[in-house]
């Protein structure tokens, strides 16, 4: 990497006053081309040398030499370095082409990261919030792996709670097996809604539901069979979304998995004198936070009790160095409480648990609400995205490729990219039209650039053999520099748990390449052809890898 190499020579010119790493942290990338490729600010050195930054810069300019540096200029306390483009290009392309899809990967660390994501609720629709969790979690999983960690992907299914008593009661009254088999979530949701409607005027239904849930908790065969059937049917439906999105989990251990594991945790809390009685319920009092409810008056456990238990279980089972909970902002307080309780229990690893929150999905600028009929169903969204993508692809693709499967990759990719290109903490606007454009800041645009390169390589008969380097010219330089930055982007986006860095990077790289493409005839004259192709190939490798890190496919043709 250019920055690392320049940092090394600066550090040695400074006789180790700043380590290579410290210099690297200080290096900046000038916004304007006329200020060179890399800038080193001299302000922090002024005190040590008792000289003005300008004078230090003047001295450094002379002392820092390397065959990678073409020239250096001093401006406003900075040394601006201009890189020898041909030399740097040769270096950068060589490493991308040698490492291929492991370019930017960190060495394997033998450390595990648990990622808790997606986690929809049984018998409830897969919400847009769950979609956000799914795609963000998936990208974090890839990013963690790329940074050398082993990842345990956990889908913490919401498969327990009093609502199952209601569902069982409703099913006994109005349920239809065949309908549920056909459209499980839709039918189960209808039963649930109908239950609430009727319970308004008939309170005995609530008693029935409570009894049904109690039976379920006590392991009653019939109740359990129904619950497990609802669970399976719902999971089957979720599985169709996961298939489309290309997502696989290592485990579907949901809330119910912890039913028989909670008692010891409650006991541990008691032994450590952390439980207080409040209104017949047991709570853990917390500093600066509302108390965390552990068991209700009737002894029933809660969402937090299950999360505490799950955290303890995972820590014991997988011994992760880190755990990410990818869940919307609205659960921030819940996770603060859970983490805090674990700390009070004396578990130091609680510091390694992290809530990765995210904003809401907005439709036409406002929050989605079931009541106003503004729900957007994932199944509809994906189907619509795929249909639109297929239409956009036009006729000329017929018979050439499996149009439907590419349309799926484009449609699904568009939905994922639209989510991940935004800072996850922000709310997100949902517009199918925009996300599917081949031109804007979209997934299809990046995919299209990748596919275009594939066809260029084919036409140019690219052989992947190293060729005598040939200068690519200044129009390629911005894209080459971006290639060089990829490993740093991969690392930073992992550290900040922010896939949007990779998404934005892929757009920049695609744009830089397309600019080059517009200004130079890649397939023109023979002289330098293989170098131009090698460069194009390097760009396509990094685009494809960026898309993969986002969980998006890169079709060869579109
Ligand atoms: N099922 C929950 C919901 O839909 C999300 C679970 C998140 N993960 C966790 N460990 N609490 O709201």
UniProtKB/TrEMBL annotation:
- List keywords of the entry alphabetically: Aminoacyl-tRNA synthetase, ATP-binding, Cytoplasm, Ligase, Nucleotide-binding, Protein biosynthesis
Q: Does the keyword Nucleotide-binding apply?
A: yes
**Mind telling me which InterPro entries this protein's record contains?**
Arg-tRNA-ligase (IPR001278), Arg-tRNA-synth_N (IPR005148), Arg-tRNA-synth_N_sf (IPR036695), ArgRS_core (IPR035684), DALR_anticod-bd (IPR008909), Rossmann-like_a/b/a_fold (IPR014729), tRNAsynth_Ia_anticodon-bd (IPR009080)
Per the record, the major location class is cytoplasm
Write out the GO MF terms.
arginine-tRNA ligase activity; ATP binding
Domain of life per record: Bacteria
Chain ranges of the DALR anticodon binding domain: 446-558
Record carries keyword Transmembrane: no
User: Start and end of every Arginyl tRNA synthetase N-terminal domain?
Assistant: 4-83
Q: What class of enzyme is it?
A: ligase
The short sequence motif called 'HIGH' region sits at 120-130
> What's a single GO CC term here?
cytoplasm
Q: Which Gene3D superfamilies match?
A: Arginyl tRNA synthetase N-terminal domain, HUPs, Isoleucyl-tRNA Synthetase, Domain 1
What's the catalysed reaction? Answer: tRNA(Arg) + L-arginine + ATP = L-arginyl-tRNA(Arg) + AMP + diphosphate
Against SMART domains, the record matches this protein to:
Arg_tRNA_synt_N, DALR_1
Task: List the GO biological process terms.
Answer: arginyl-tRNA aminoacylation
Q: EC number(s) on record? A: 6.1.1.19
The entry's localization annotation reads: Cytoplasm
UniProt record similarity statement? Belongs to the class-I aminoacyl-tRNA synthetase family.
Subunit relationships: Monomer.
What this protein is called in its record is Arginine--tRNA ligase
Q: Which organism is it from?
A: Alkalicoccobacillus porphyridii
As recorded in Swiss-Prot or TrEMBL, the protein's gene is named argS
